[in-house]
User: Which sequence fits this backbone?
């Protein structure tokens, strides 16, 4: 128990035989249950956890009979925590990249009712740029910007961080079967939380790298995959939050922003074609293209501003 709240830590695992023992053995004493969800590992992860469970009754091992992705393993763990009436559910990955010393900082705002969902932010520290591999740091920065737009949580950064804590209301309200199951799960979850108006807070945590962890993430591939995921779910959030649940005029601004953006691409393509064809640019074509560009920029920025204002109480 932590401040009279029961705590379940969900650990999704896939081929973490070298790291999972350290993760479990360094778990703080106040954690009531350690829910290890093995996502059909091909190494000795299960054997390591089973050996530890013989001497630690807190360990609950759940095994998948096929690989479901990190999000699928998390959903299994969250459903278990919900069905067993835990007050707080924490996510800690099995690769050892999440410092147990930061857990109290994540728990405090949730336990005291200041927020519904807290997440680690590895970018607060000035050491982040030095510690995080440069390709991942760049990819994280790009995805953070895109996630701000897609999720509506403009105050949240380091959207890829999986070190999180949520209260029982979040656990019982979300339909975990709908959560994205692969890389992009943290981003998709933020969008789901925003539609339901849950409060989210960033908490500074220490980035840990170079301890023997193995990452299966390919930054170049993931950026394009997640960009498409975020675009689709951005439109879903607009529909669910600002049209179906509570009509908001910002959807007109976003609509006009997208309309003028497509028009801008067409007009500039036409402009350069004219330049190539006749060797000069007709003034009316240039004015039309610039007017369209300005319209797209202004409508989009105003829409983002309205979105930021609509979500300012969810900090």
Assistant:
């Amino acid at each position: 128990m932590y401040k009279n709240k029961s705590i379940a830590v969900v650990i999704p695992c896939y081929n973490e035989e070298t790291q999972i023992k350290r993760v479990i053995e360094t778990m703080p004493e106040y954690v009531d249950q350690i829910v290890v969800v093995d996502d059909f590992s091909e190494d000795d992860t299960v054997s390591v956890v089973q050996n530890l469970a013989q001497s630690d009754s807190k360990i609950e091992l759940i095994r998948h009979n096929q690989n479901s992705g990190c999000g699928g393993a998390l959903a299994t763990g969250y459903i278990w925590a919900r069905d067993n009436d835990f007050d707080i559910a924490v996510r800690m990955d099995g690769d050892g990249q999440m410092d147990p010393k930061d857990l109290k900082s994540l728990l405090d705002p949730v336990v005291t009712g200041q927020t519904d969902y807290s997440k680690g932010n590895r970018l607060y520290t000035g050491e982040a740029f030095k510690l995080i591999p440069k390709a991942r740091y760049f990819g994280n920065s790009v995805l953070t910007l895109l996630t701000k737009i897609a999720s509506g949580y403009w105050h949240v950064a380091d959207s890829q961080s999986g070190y999180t804590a949520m209260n029982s209301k979040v656990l019982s309200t979300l339909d975990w079967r709908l959560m994205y199951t692969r890389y992009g799960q943290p981003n998709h979850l933020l969008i789901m939380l925003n539609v339901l108006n849950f409060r989210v807070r960033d908490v500074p945590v220490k980035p840990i790298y170079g301890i023997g962890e193995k990452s299966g993430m390919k930054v170049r591939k993931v950026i394009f995959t997640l960009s498409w995921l975020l675009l689709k779910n951005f439109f879903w959030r607009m529909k669910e939050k600002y049209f179906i649940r509570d009509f908001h005029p910002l959807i007109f601004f976003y609509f006009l922003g997208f309309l003028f953006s497509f028009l801008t691409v067409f007009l500039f393509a036409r402009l350069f074609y004219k330049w190539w064809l006749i060797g000069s640019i007709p003034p009316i074509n240039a004015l039309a293209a610039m007017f369209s560009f300005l319209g797209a920029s202004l409508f989009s920025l105003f829409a983002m501003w309205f979105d930021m204002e609509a979500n300012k109480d969810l900090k």
Q: What stands out?
A: The longest strand covers residues 7-13. The CA atoms of residues 142 and 223 lie 8 Å apart. Residues 250-278 form the longest helix (29 residues).
